[in-house]
């Protein structure tokens, strides 16, 4: 029988790409999303790519009654991938209570549902933000976590603790936290990609919107960091590569290949690129000249971080494959399709 996977936040950016990969791998998918940062037509595009439309329910998982009702009607779920969360670093500094309430309560409600309805397996969407500004680079899974630089980052850290403590207390639960670095790009079909509502909080959608004429100028937050060109450095991973890692993690849990009840993996490329390198890389990949200016540093940002991916490569048998230029070009092709640009 086809195994059924719940994908929370499945109409969002990473979630939608993961739904495609799961369906193409033969899984049945049900999506729960409150559409606070996505739209329903994503389901049409998932169906166009994969040939299958996932089941869908719209509600916020921070609502305990609705979450329990959902699980009571879907007791055949084999595993859960939990993406659903508020995720903008800058916004979280301004409205921390919203972030704590939304991001922590939703996970606790899901864990309650797992315990009540005997669903063992959870893959949690974590983040390299749990490492703060590391003392040593690249970052391994044993790099100490630090106090987060933002409430958003702190919710990822606390959620990891909630998950780990729950697995210790309830041995029937198994979980994998995937700490991703910076997902960018879009599906090669250009049918799904990153489409934030309102002003983008992430670099690449801001770049593509500026290239499409929606934004007058790109702000580069800081040129006085301790990096070769003064701008902040991140590890940028193609979203399709990232989505494929979630399928591998699900299979690891379903096939009981996990080596502990709770496991953690870094998902990145192992390479760090500065903000200015991304700007110039986009120009090179697309031939589009960008208008950017240097502005002051942004609250909650760290200086530099990139992953040591060797553990994930070895244990999961997974590796990021797509290069930076190909990835940036895919983001531009997606933006052009959305805006009707030839």
Automatic annotation (TrEMBL):
GO terms for molecular function: UDP-glucose 4-epimerase activity. Gene3D superfamilies: NAD(P)-binding Rossmann-like Domain, UDP-galactose 4-epimerase, domain 1. One of its GO terms (biological process) is galactose metabolic process. It catalyses: UDP-alpha-D-glucose = UDP-alpha-D-galactose. It is an enzyme of class 5 (isomerase). CDD domains: UDP_G4E_1_SDR_e. Keywords: Carbohydrate metabolism, Galactose metabolism, Isomerase, NAD. The keyword NAD applies. Residues 135-155 are annotated as: Disordered. GO terms for cellular component: cytosol. Residues 5-268 form the NAD-dependent epimerase/dehydratase domain. Pathway: Carbohydrate metabolism; galactose metabolism. The keyword Isomerase applies. Its cofactor is NAD(+). InterPro entries: Epimerase_deHydtase (IPR001509), NAD(P)-bd_dom_sf (IPR036291), UDP_G4E (IPR005886). Its EC number is 5.1.3.2. Belongs to the NAD(P)-dependent epimerase/dehydratase family. Homodimer. This is UDP-glucose 4-epimerase. The lineage of its organism: Bacteria, Pseudomonadati, Bacteroidota, Bacteroidia, Marinilabiliales.
């Amino acid at each position: 029988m086809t195994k059924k996977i719940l994908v929370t936040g499945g109409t969002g950016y990473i979630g939608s790409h993961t739904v495609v990969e799961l369906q193409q791998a033969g899984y049945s998918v049900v999506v729960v999303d409150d559409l606070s940062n996505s739209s329903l037509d994503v389901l049409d595009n998932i169906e166009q790519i994969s040939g299958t439309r996932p089941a869908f329910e719209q509600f916020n998982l921070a609502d305990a009654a609705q979450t329990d009702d959902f699980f009571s009607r879907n007791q055949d779920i084999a595993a859960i991938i939990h993406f659903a969360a508020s995720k903008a670093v800058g916004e979280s500094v301004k409205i921390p209570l919203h972030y704590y309430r939304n991001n922590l309560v939703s996970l606790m409600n899901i864990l309650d549902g797992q315990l009540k309805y005997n669903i063992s397996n959870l893959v949690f969407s974590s983040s390299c933000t749990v490492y703060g500004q590391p003392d040593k680079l690249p970052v391994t899974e044993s790099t100490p976590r630090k106090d987060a630089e933002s409430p958003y980052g702190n919710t990822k850290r606390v959620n990891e603790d909630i998950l780990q403590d729950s697995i210790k207390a309830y041995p029937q639960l198994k979980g994998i936290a995937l700490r991703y670095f910076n997902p960018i790009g879009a599906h090669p079909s250009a049918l799904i990609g990153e489409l934030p509502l309102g002003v983008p909080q992430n670099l690449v959608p801001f770049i593509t919107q500026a290239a499409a004429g929606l934004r007058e100028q790109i702000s580069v937050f800081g040129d006085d960091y301790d990096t070769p060109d003064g701008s902040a450095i991140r590890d940028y991973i193609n979203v399709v590569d990232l989505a494929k890692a979630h399928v591998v993690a699900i299979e690891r849990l379903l096939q009981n290949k996990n080596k502990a009840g709770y496991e953690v993996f870094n998902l990145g490329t192992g390479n760090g690129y500065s903000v200015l390198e991304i700007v110039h890389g986009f120009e090179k990949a697309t031939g589009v000249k960008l208008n950017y200016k240097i502005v002051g540093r942004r609250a909650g940002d760290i200086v530099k971080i990139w992953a040591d991916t060797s553990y994930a490569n070895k244990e999961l048998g997974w590796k990021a494959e797509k290069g930076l230029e190909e990835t940036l070009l895919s983001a531009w092709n997606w933006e052009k399709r959305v805006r009707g640009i030839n």
